[in-house]
Design goal:
6 helices; 26% strand; alpha/beta
């Protein structure tokens, strides 16, 4: 087995799958950081700060021989963050608020290498079709929205709600592959 090309500062199975999709070998180390927004922090600033802090925390805790890739993804509707639902009532409210409307997904990627940090950002818009109460209840019963920000997974059953997407499909999943590949290629890591 070939050795890792980088450290992924995330436990997300979707980010692991996406890196594997482009042929990148990695090891996983998670970062223990406070992910709460600061007072009056803009979502765009928040997503970039979190990606950078995750990568930096793992870089500083490593032997600094492998580059570290950190990422964060946030959904925003009407200036509010689309977080993980606490229960069915909060998932229902989020999904109803997105019904028939567009929301924005920001996905930031940070790469620490030789104590320098490169940052890239992907912005996508997702339009949901109108959702019914029965669909929302049935979707909740499937279990998919329970631990997903925005109460849906674009790569799962939640895809039936997305009428249109402009931007990065992989970015909506949690790791924009175009931007990630560009960062990796800058430091000599081949993809594919």
């Amino acid at each position: 087995m070939q050795s890792a090309q980088l450290i992924l500062a995330s436990a997300s199975p979707r980010r692991r799958e996406l890196l594997e999709q482009i042929g990148v070998r990695y090891q996983v180390r998670t970062a223990d950081i406070d992910e709460r927004a600061r007072l009056d922090e803009d979502p765009l600033d928040l997503v970039q700060r979190l990606a950078k802090q995750k990568a930096q925390a793992v870089w500083e805790d490593s032997d600094q021989t492998l580059p570290v890739l950190g990422a964060d993804t946030l959904g925003v509707l009407d200036g509010r963050l689309l977080v993980k639902p606490e229960d069915f009532a909060s998932a229902r409210q989020m999904l109803l608020s997105m019904s028939g409307r567009m929301h924005t997904i920001y996905s930031a990627v940070a790469l620490y290498h030789q104590a320098a940090c490169e940052l890239a950002l992907s912005t996508s818009q997702v339009w949901f079709r109108r959702l019914t109460e029965a669909e929302i209840a049935a979707y909740w019963q499937q279990g998919e929205p329970c631990d997903k920000a925005g109460a849906y997974a674009i790569q799962g059953m939640g895809a039936i709600f997305a009428e249109r997407l402009e931007g990065s499909y992989s970015g909506v999943m949690g790791l924009p592959l175009f931007e990630t590949a560009q960062l990796l290629q800058k430091i000599g890591i081949r993809v594919l």
